[in-house]
Input
Amino acid sequence: MDNNEYDELFENYRDYLKFLTIKLDSFFENQKEYIFCKMGCAKCCKNAEFPFSLIEIQYALYGFSKLPDETKKIIEENLTRVLEEKKKFKGEKFLYTCPYLVNNVCSIYEYRGVICRTFGLINKVTEGNPKVPFCCFEGQNYSNVLDEKTGQLSSKKVKELGLKEEPTGFNVSYEYLTGQTYEEVFEFSFGEKKPMIEWLED
Ligand code: SF4
Ligand code: SF4
Output
């Protein structure tokens, strides 16, 4: 594919990504008193499934194609290692470190998937309790208001710290953000969805 063909393929998806970025930036800004993400943390890029749709993996691979050869080589080595682990894996849900993670930094940041863009926020699911990010329990996002005894976020701590916003969950579920509504509004299709590693082993 030449550049024009790529531009055509990704035109509407890029519009969606611009919209998504504005939306998620406003959530992160609203919750900034609880967000402690910093370059080199990247725990959220490890030990997970990473659902990706067809358009997302195509975009990630496009990002990969633009990388310097030495970075590509590291990613290919990462991928080989993950695929070997996957072959030996006997359970139901294979969790792995994303092959695009190089020196604890996303090598395809601009081209990363939708799920990657939501890491660190509280996911307000439609049923049940909002899902606090796992890193809250590892001293990161929202850990400043975590009650260690109950494992819940504490309004008392919010008051004691004089924080302006309550910890708030938003609907940042992968299913919602990659749902039909957005496909219709932005006139593109996400296509099939499956764990990233299953795209990369094809
Ligand atoms: S694509 Fe980038 S942000 Fe997403 S899981 Fe992989 S390394 Fe992390
Ligand atoms: S979301 Fe959590 S694990 Fe990921 S970079 Fe931010 S603080 Fe680290």
